[in-house]
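Issue 218. Parser rejects a valid record. Input:
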Amino acid sequence: MFDTANTAERNAATAEAMNDPQVGDRFHEMYSFFVYVVFREKDKIVTLEASPPCTLPEDGTLKSQTVQQFQERFSYGTIDGYWVSLCDRGNNVEGWMDAAKVEAANENQS
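Output the parser choked on:
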């Protein structure tokens, strides 16, 4: 992979967001896997994760973790960086956590 100015900027933005994830942050892996931060309180975050084709938030899976666990899950591990990239910040994800919980409860009743 070639290191370009855009790559360096994207990697820096991703690292910044991984160190301080905020509600509404959206990450992707080649647009085939999406991660939205839907809750943050101190060191605890909840993400909603899904792979296309999907309808969000209904098709997402909730994952609760600390910021450190979040970083470790998406870190390459052997080299610096993350296997997901920040798409954008500030998405409106209000109500997504509750909608995903309702959908999961409905699936468990089937």
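Fixed in the parser; the record now loads. The longest helix spans residues 5-19.
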